[in-house]
Write a structure and sequence with these properties.
The chain is of the alpha+beta class and about 150 residues long. The protein contains 4 helices and 6 strands, in the order ββααβββαβα. The chain has one domain: 3-Layer(aba) Sandwich (Aminopeptidase), CATH 3.40.630.30.
Length: about 150
């Protein structure tokens, strides 16, 4: 679903959209236990969200999956990057910035005019690849049925 994403390599890490290398069970474990925005999310919900989006992951040379992100898009004008996660042992190496930057570059080259994401505490990570606060937050609205996080 990732529109022929070319695998990228950086040192001992491989960024891929190849679903055979990316584990739904690992992603579910991260999100349901460690991600403030997804604690308690069921495996079924994680699997369904993956099936309905473009999944990317970073795999270490050892074969261990160490990061993931999903892109939700109409493939023409808009994209939303969601569920960005880097395993704790691999944080601080710029993997999140690299992964999100490559995803943004990939979809921008296909014509997406707006790409968004949400974060509570990683603004600097995403600013490094061009994200900034909403220019016109008064234009944005939401329905949020989750408990506050």
């Amino acid at each position: 679903m990732s529109e022929t994403f070319d695998t990228k390599v950086r040192g001992d890490y491989l960024l891929t959209a190849d679903a055979r290398r990316l584990s739904t069970d690992v992603i579910h474990g991260w999100l349901s236990r460690e991600a403030y925005w997804a604690k308690g999310r069921s495996r079924e919900a994680v699997a369904s969200s993956i099936a309905h989006s473009n999944l990317y992951g970073v795999v270490h040379a050892s074969g261990e999956m160490v990061a993931c992100a999903r892109m939700l898009t109409d493939h023409v004008t808009f994209g939303w990057i969601d569920d960005v996660f880097v395993a704790e042992a691999h944080r601080g190496q710029g993997l999140g910035t690299w992964m999100v930057g490559e995803i943004v570059e990939h979809w921008s080259a296909r014509g997406l005019r707006r790409i968004m994401l949400a974060t509570r505490d990683a603004h600097a990570v995403y600013a490094a690849v061009g994200f900034r606060a909403l220019a016109h937050p008064e234009r944005m609205m939401e329905i949020d049925r989750r408990a506050a996080f």
